[in-house]
Amino acid sequence: MDLKRISPKIAVSPQIKPDDINAIKAEGISAIICNRPDGEGADQPTFDEIEAAARAAGIEARYVPVQSGMVADTDVEAFGTALEDLPRPVLAYCRTGTRSATLWSFHESKKRPMADILAATKAVGYDMNGVARRIANGGKTPTDTGDAKYDVVIVGAGAGGVSVAASLVARASDLSIAIIDPADIHYYQPGWTMVGGGIFQASDTAKTMGSLIPRGVKWIKAAVAAFEPGNNAVILDGCRVVKYDRLVVTPGLKLDWAAVEGLEETLGHNGVTSNYRYDLAPYTWQLVQGMKSGRALFTQPPMPIKCAGAPQKAMYLSGDAWFRRAVLEDIDIQFMNAGGVLFGVKDYVPALMQYVEKYDATLNFFHNLIAVDGPSRTATFKVAQPDTTPENVTVEFDMLHVCPPQSAPDFIRVSPLADAAGWVDVDQATLRHKCHDNIWSLGDVMNAPNAKTAAAARKQAPTVAENIVADIAGLSPTAAYDGYGSCPLTVERGKIVLAEFGYGGVLKPSFPPLLLDGTKPSRTAWFLKEKMLPPIYWLAMLRGKEWMAKPERLKVAAE
């Protein structure tokens, strides 16, 4: 907990946890305002969890969510109403505290000098000069000038962002590069399936962000509010402006827990879990270990989602654990898939079906999770079979593993960079924006028709770096991304079906069939997943060492 007192009546802080509530009470705080929408981060407790802990400690809590960087007049009004209603002193929190400090600054600007506001926020580490400019400019943040300027600005410090920064530094160390990301922790998300299967510890999948940003790259610890490509500008939380010559957009995607009615309230309780959240993956393994009989549901929402195989990986590893403990015959495994096929690349389906049969799992296609009642342990699905009238079906469960619906982040969907579906609109080969020549995108947020996996970002980062360097030199794009993605399907402890494919489902194996046939379960592939891929991620991919990821030549350029 990092509580910062702006005044005797209000403090702000980054994200708090339920375990922090007693310390918050000891600081004399009487009420809490949450300004962070649920589901914004992979390690974020829900407001319901915070509220329950606060209520138990005699502290009032209020939910006033504000989308990252999008402080509107209505948000300021709601924040002011909460301040008036709640007992003082109040603690307001968001991801970093910036949104809360911004809301307070706008609220106070109606009754105290801006100089006093700037001094109070600066004293606790928040720069509100951008707020002052926005107020002075009639409510709009001017972008003709900026607070900082870089040759390349990268939005997002996940797998794609750090990798492309490292690849750029390796090619052109004299570039001024900045990465914008508010997160303190960087996660190796492909490891969470293994956490949920009892193979990895959750702590092994996390490192501090500061330890991973390449040397010489500026880390701007802030959230993005908006893009103004016409002025080569990015607007940040607190209304600060960063200018660029070239921009890379790679913030990942949004896990929309709230899209399923009742889900947020019961996550981590009542047998409801998800390997898509850092703090819940250990709960998955806890449930698997404790289950001896009953029904286990595993859900998969409509595409696109990150790592399309992850929902069934959880099913296979759970089934394997129950098989090894000789309790499988008393457990009813049901796979509830909103889609119509087990896996999108048919070459891998026969091997997967062997394990569906081994674990006696029932495949329920066109079943989309729409509601969860945790206390009653029921899940409701919208069943929309082709050429039939959709109907809702409610199923009882003892364990429910949820893969949440997913979309582009809100600040991307409403931006001029997005296509009609909300994803960053790029050329699928060069990953350059279709309308803005000095903008590129990679990772889960862009609209190329590839699988959204870390393995895809590993191939995309060198492609983007190569094409940016070519653009700086005045050349046309030289590198092409072929749609490569990889999904190591953990079908049992010790064996993996290593799915590797490109655009159109074309198989893209990295190894000769005699060494590793990806269409069959393999111990070699398990060794690769368990022992090789984590160090390759941390020590190669994130450091610009492009092992087996050298960019392919763009055919047009080669000719």
UniProtKB/TrEMBL annotation:
Residues covered by the Beta-lactamase hydrolase-like protein phosphatase-like domain: 2-107
GO molecular function: transferase activity
Species this protein is from: Sedimentitalea todarodis
Gene3D superfamilies the UniProt entry points to: FAD/NAD(P)-binding domain, Protein tyrosine phosphatase superfamily
Domain named FAD/NAD(P)-binding: residues: 150-270
NCBIfam families: TIGR01244 family sulfur transferase
Pfam families (alphabetical): BLH_phosphatase, Pyr_redox_2
Classification of source organism: Bacteria, Pseudomonadati, Pseudomonadota, Alphaproteobacteria, Rhodobacterales
Superkingdom of the source species: Bacteria
Listed InterPro entries: BLH_phosphatase-like (IPR005939), FAD/NAD-bd_sf (IPR036188), FAD/NAD-binding_dom (IPR023753), Prot-tyrosine_phosphatase-like (IPR029021), Sulphide_quinone_reductase (IPR015904)
SUPFAM superfamilies in the record: (Phosphotyrosine protein) phosphatases II, FAD/NAD(P)-binding domain
Presence of keyword Transferase: yes
Record key words, sorted: Transferase
The name this protein goes by in its record: TIGR01244 family sulfur transferase
